[in-house]
Amino acid sequence: MMDKDPVPATPPPTARREDLARAWTGAATSTAYIPRAIDELETILLELVDEVLAALADDSTSTPAATGETVGARLVEEGFTDPHALRASIEVLTAGLLGELDRTPDSELARRTVALLGAMSAGYADGLRNYTLTQQERLKQALFNAMVRAEHNLRATENRFQEVFASSAVGIAITDLDGMCVESNPALGQILGCSPNQLAGRMLPEFFVTEDPLPTPGLAGPRPVPGSLAETYRRVLDGEAERVQEQRRLRTVDGETAWVVVGISLLHDGAGSPAYFVTMIQDVSELRLLSDRLGHQLLHDALTGLPNRQQFTSKLETTLGRAAPDATVTLCVVNLDGFALVNNSLGHDVGDRLLRTVGQRLEAAVAAERAMVARLGGDEFAVLIEDLPVTPDIDDLIAQINVELAEPEYLDGRGVGIGASTGAVRCRAADMSAGELFRAADTALRKAKATGKRQWAGFHSHEDDAARERDALAVELPAAWENGQLTVAYEPVVLLGTERVVAARPVLSWQRDEETVHDHRFCVELAERTGLTVQLVPQVLGEVGRRLPVLREVFAESLGEVEDPLVRIQLTRAQTGDADLARAVHRALRGVATPGLLEVALDTGAVLDDVGDARDNLDVLVDIGVSTGLCGFQGGPRELELLADSPVRSVTLDPDGIGAAGRDTAGEVLRTEVARLVRAIVDGGRECSVLDPRTPAEAAWWASAGAVSAQGGLFGAPVAADELPGLPRVPTG
């Protein structure tokens, strides 16, 4: 099995933080004016980067949100009052913190990063509102002081007040206690789209939208307050609140709408009685738009525009949570077949366009349903359907999807067609959580892909229980090798009809606990699921190389001069194609005078299909003097042709195929044809060997058919390395 290209290592923390701070500084200063020297600004942002990285590394679930709010508020304190600076900051942090997840997916890091960036936007909005409130307080104090000083120097006070009032960037309205505008500044006129003179005498609450606003996606801070502004005036006048700050929508004179932050407080007369309302209005439409855009980017796939995994998972949880217990939902996980062929042959641009097309066609396939289509990542999509009485059966639903995807897409003059494998689950909403439903769909998808291309499979709980148990054992296997529970044992190889043990076959044995021992076939099946078989080859070969001299002496006592291989190792399909196989064999035989004492049997199917370096491995092993063989042999025409052209010494029949011919249940036709095949193998100068004969009668039939040797089964259980000296005296049953 060829190793994948290594993923580039993450930069050291110090370099990463400094690079991120410099990128942040450059982006912020290029988009907005910030009243700071570059060195000073970079020092400040370096501190904020440290806080962000520390929060993401903290196990606490609340730390990212709290740190995000603190960082957002700090930006306003340091002069980032232009929304362009916030947008640049979010883009830099998003690229820096999430940029590597395409290659090294980490859903927990993604979730914590999204939470931190969302809280940072909200903290920035809060900081900007506090900044506005501070301006309001200062302006209010200036207004109040101007009224007090007016008794001494009315003209000077009026000039000073008018300068502050007219030059403020915040819209200001002085209204009576009913909300009628008495005076307003130019900034408010710009927000409302009219001159201050046109506002005089008008009721300010009339400009504000009073209906309940719809929820707004994204991170736009507090939801707008519904109802009339006059109600807020009443609350302030009645003393329920000293001052109020709300986010509202207003409608301009031209009919356009804008998002604003409204601050309301009272001005008192000389006797301390309420006299006027001071209403300050700041336009935050651009900040709101930026926040909504950020929210959309965090919840949607940038390539297809479909919901991403985070939004889809949230939708799935919400759907299951609000559905009636007996309501059913359907989840389909769709994985494109052969998508890598498109990227490799036509380029990634064509692949990207095809992904967009697939997303559109999946939406078209379920357009009549209450459904959501999402791109989970790569070439994997998901479809969630809230089942209705008219929702078709799963097989009909999959057929609709396949029909939509079957139509070729013409890109740059080429008709590009691609199929998909699908895992589908339909269950009652109360039966599974979102995580369990996703896992069930993934399990069904793996089952479909194991069947072949363009297949689909459903989910069956009893099959899943067994699969989960096997998966758990598979991921436990590497640790078993490390702690010595998984070891190499040696199985006797016996000459049929002579009861002589002439060689040993290394096999895996897993002593999982005092009562449980897993045999070689089960261990290999588990190891193949995780790729551990390839990793084990050098270790097993190293063990074999150390034992060869001992075995030669032991077998010399019973067999005399030893010419045939004493150790016969049989490889799996993945091991046969491993690019490092020949190197591992050569290293294991370093110092061994007679490499032919080791026989390496390659998987027949892997050699025929030229998996990885399978054919090269066969040639190289012959060149370095190692005996070779073929295992898993089925006797088909291509296999016979391969046998004729290969310098192999032995052939081991597939125990699950023609190797069943020796059993009592085998038919006469099978026995006759297999006996003819065995004779052809032996007549061609190869040793024919069989695995695991279970009864003396079965062994006798194989001997009569011409098979030379047998391994395992009734000829003895595997023994530990320390028991190898006694191996030739293992009883034959």
Could you explain the architecture of this structure?
Helix 1 packs across helix 2 (about 40-55), helix 3 runs parallel beside helix 5 (about 105-165) and helix 4 packs antiparallel against helix 5 (about 105-165). The chain starts with 12 loop residues before the first helix and ends in a 22-residue tail after the last strand. About 50% of the residues lie in helices and about 20% in strands. Helix 24 (about 695-705) links the parallel strand 20 (about 685-690) and strand 21 (about 710). The chain contains 24 helices and 21 strands. The protein has about 725 residues and is an alpha/beta fold. The model is unreliable at about 1-15 and about 215-220 (pLDDT under 50). A 9-stranded mixed β-sheet has the order 15-14-13-21-20-19-18-17-16. The protein has a 5-stranded antiparallel β-sheet with strand order 2-1-5-4-3, sandwiched between helices. Strands 7-8-6-11-12 form a 5-stranded mixed β-sheet, sandwiched between helices.
